[in-house]
Design a protein that fits this description.
This protein is of the alpha+beta class. The protein has one domain (4-89). It has two helices and six strands. The protein has a six-stranded antiparallel beta sheet, covered by helices on one side. A hairpin with a 3-residue loop joins β4 (46-52) and β5 (56-62). The chain starts with a strand and ends in a 5-residue tail after the last helix.
Length: 94
């Protein structure tokens, strides 16, 4: 899957590696900026994570329209977020 990783609304990384994803998740800080990552093939289909290492993360997903925007899981750890984003970036359906 051809994906872009958007970091806090500014930086975009095309087809991010696991290392890129891990670094971006670890760098999120809710005290200093908008702490979110968006990973997806389009502006309307993506997975999103908000939070940071201290407060935990919330994972969400959107499919094609705003009506299909869902909160997938709360209170996630970085060790849960990174593999989920890696699998999504390579098109895994698991």
């Amino acid at each position: 899957m051809n994906c872009a990783l958007e970091v806090c609304g500014s930086t975009k990384i095309q087809n991010p590696s696991e290392s890129d994803i891990r670094q971006a998740v670890s760098a999120l800080d809710t005290k200093h900026n908008d702490a979110f990552l968006i990973l997806g093939p389009t502006n309307m289909t993506y997975s999103q994570v908000t939070g940071d290492l201290k407060v935990g993360f919330e994972l969400g997903h959107q499919e094609l329209t705003l009506k299909n925007h869902f909160r997938a899981k709360r209170d996630c750890t970085a060790d849960e977020i990174v593999p989920a984003f890696v699998e999504y970036s390579i098109g895994s359906k698991d």
